[in-house]
Amino acid sequence: MRPSRATIDLDALRHNYRHARALGGGKALAVVKADAYGHGAVACARALDGEADGFGVACIEEALELREAGVRAPIVLLEGFFDAGELALIERHDLWTVVASPWQVEALERHRATRPWQVWVKLDSGMHRLGLSPGEYAHAWRRLAALPWVERMVAMSHFSRADELSHASTPEQLAAFDHALAQLPAGTPASIANSAALMAWPRTRREWVRPGLMLYGSHMLDAPRAEAAALRAVMTLESKVIAVRDLAEGEPIGYAGTFITTRPTRVGVVAAGYADGYPQYATSGTPVMIDGRPGELIGRVSMDMLTIDLTDHPDAGLGSRVELWGSELPVADVAARSGNSPYRLLTGLKRVPRRYADSGD
Ligand SMILES: *Cc1c(COP(=O)(O)O)cnc(C)c1O
Fold it and tell me: pLDDT tens digits for 73-86?
């Protein structure tokens, strides 16, 4: 069998969730959209079931997958509903939805509900993607509050650059959010922090925080923070050396010969490539771990294979374990070498089987 695999450490997931929840000091919505950032939404939600205050998904398809798997906790549709036809399903499966556009307010006004609803009303505080503008926010809020079946409302917004610890954008967005909150009834629950804000901007922590990436043990903060150092990697992508060859100086390796040996070089071929989700344009020198020791990628990544430099790893050879990212090697470090983000690499996992490790801790 091909030796590539992704091991998903569910103990680490729970550790990270508890860490996030403790930091937030209130409730924490575990964001498991995009198949839990490539980790498997059902397995991750089950691992957190009974513990997570709720789950965040992008769309109703993702929510139904969790409900069908028996997840009973609250589920928030973070991208809202896409047409009024979804309202019946939202109602039947007891989902919470985000409302971010005026047409959605109107659709809810036309809906005849038979159970109490919880809606999260999204403000565009400056990211300029989804959300009601500051000028229309309070009015939309009052219209929704007037619906007798809307039992609970949460004010929410989303940051665009909370990873940048010295940028003014996050305090500015927070001020816009607080300004909108001031026009709502006192005691209105609020939610604005994603992972980066939760770890790096304590003033953004409100009734609900919404950690995503940090649950999986990664981050993109541009300066060290103890809150990030406490995270544990959940996904470890690994494979093995399946061939070894010795090359003289001046020999090209792989497609397009982008790498030419500058010394006599011992090359290891690893069974992992871009069709597994490893970044195709990772540059020579991208870190890998070879039997637990730091090593480097050399040559262009192919669809099913990549090549590493074994010259300084005399004990490594056929069958050596190669970690491409995970508990020994932060996925963000690998992402940075290819113009990617950890979000992209984790959600891009393909083909390799996922194995779940869970001691129940
Ligand atoms: C994806 C998402 C999150 C989680 O973001 P991270 O940066 O992964 O923590 C939080 N809130 C909303 C609305 C999202 O779409």
Answer: 999 999 999 999 99
Q: How far is the CA of 85 from the centre of ligand 1 (A)?
A: 25
Tens digit of pLDDT for each residue in 173-192? 999 999 999 999 999 999 99
What tens digit of pLDDT does each residue of 314-340 get? Answer: 999 999 999 999 999 999 999 999 999
Contact between 247 and 265 under an 8 Å Cβ cutoff? The reply is yes
pTM of the model: 0.97
Cross-strand pairs, 210 = none
pLDDT surpassing 90 at residue 360? no
Ligand 1, atom 4: nearest CA belongs to which residue?
Answer: 212
**Residue 331 resides in a domain:** yes
Active site residue 27: no
Residue 158 resides in a domain: yes
The answer on 207 and 130 residing in a single domain is yes
pLDDT digit string, tens, across residues 127-186? 999 999 999 999 999 999 999 999 999 999 999 999 999 999 999 999 999 999 999 999
Single out the residue of 89, 203, 222, 226 nearest to residue 163, CA to CA.
222
Residue 351 has pLDDT above 90, yes or no: yes
- C-alpha to C-alpha distance for 216 and 4, rounded to whole angstroms: 20
Tell me the angle at which helices 169-181 and 134-145 cross, rounded to the nearest 10 degrees.
40
Which positions ≥6 away from 103 have C-beta within 8 Å?
Answer: none
Question: From the candidates 33, 37, 137, 274, which is the catalytic residue?
Answer: 33
Q: Indicate whether 104 and 58 sit together in one domain.
A: yes
Compute the distance between CA of residue 253 and CA of residue 255 in angstroms, rounded to an integer. 7
Q: Identify the domain containing residue 240 by its residue range.
A: 235-357
Amino acid occupying residue 108: L
- 256 in a domain, yes or no? yes
Number of domains in the chain: 2
**Ligand 1 pocket test, candidate residues 121, 157, 201, 210, most atoms within 8 A of CB:** 210
Residue 66's identity, in one-letter code, is L
Last residue of a domain, one of 154, 188, 217: 217
Q: What number of other Cβ atoms are within 10 A of residue 114's Cβ?
A: 7
